[in-house]
Amino acid sequence: MSDCIFCKIAGGEVPAEIVYQDDQIVGFKDIRPVAPVHILLIPRKHIPDLTAITPEDAELIGRLHLAAVKVAADQGLAERGFRLVNNCKAEGGQVVYHLHFHLLGGRQMRTLG
Ligand code: AMP
Ligand code: ZN
């Protein structure tokens, strides 16, 4: 069995506030939100980080973005805008090694860094 917390969330073994799911993607609220809207979008497939994607994952990554846009619209962010972030590996600030994108919104975002 996988030891990955996000695989467990996708599999329903660990509870989360799920806001989106389909056959390939799950979206759920971040447990430590840094914005009024802070949702994580993950593939059900365990991919450790963005450098591990292959050409076979191209459609999946596209679907992740389509899901992010749908969730953003559901959260009332379609007109206001939002930020979609991937933290990749140590210097990118990645903590959980299951690929995920942070959907952040509901407040003005500042410069990166
Ligand atoms: P990252 O630094 O990009 O790896 O971000 C990992 C994110 O996962 C952080 O924002 C955490 O607050 C969030 N997180 C960790 N465990 C959980 C969990 N069980 N449910 C929801 N969010 C989580
Ligand atoms: Zn995983």
Structural account:
- The chain is an alpha+beta fold and 113 residues long.
- It has a single domain, classed as HIT family, subunit A (2-Layer Sandwich).
- Helices cover 24% and strands 21% of the residues.
- The protein contains three helices and five strands; from the N terminus they run αβββαβαβ.
- Strands 1-2-3-5-4 form a five-stranded antiparallel beta sheet, covered by helices on one side.
- A hairpin with a 3-residue loop joins strand 1 (18-21) and strand 2.
- The longest helix is centred in the middle third of the chain and has 17 residues, at 58-74.
- The radius of gyration is 14 Å and the shape is globular.
- The N and C termini lie far apart (37 Å).
- Residues 5, 16, 30-32, 40, 87, 93-96 line the site of adenosine monophosphate.
Task: Detail the topology: elements first, then pairings.
Blueprint: H1 5-10, E1 18-21, E2 25-29, E3 37-43, H2 58-74, E4 83-85, H3 89-92, E5 101-105
Antiparallel strand pairs: 1-2, 2-3, 3-5, 4-5
Bound molecules: adenosine monophosphate (AMP) and zinc ion.
Q: Number of domains in the coordinates? A: 1
User: What is the annotated CATH architecture?
Assistant: 2-Layer Sandwich
Examine the coordinates and then state which fold CATH places here, giving the name of the CATH topology: HIT family, subunit A
- Average per-residue pLDDT, rounded, comes to 97
- The residue ranges in which pLDDT falls below 50 over 5 or more consecutive positions are none
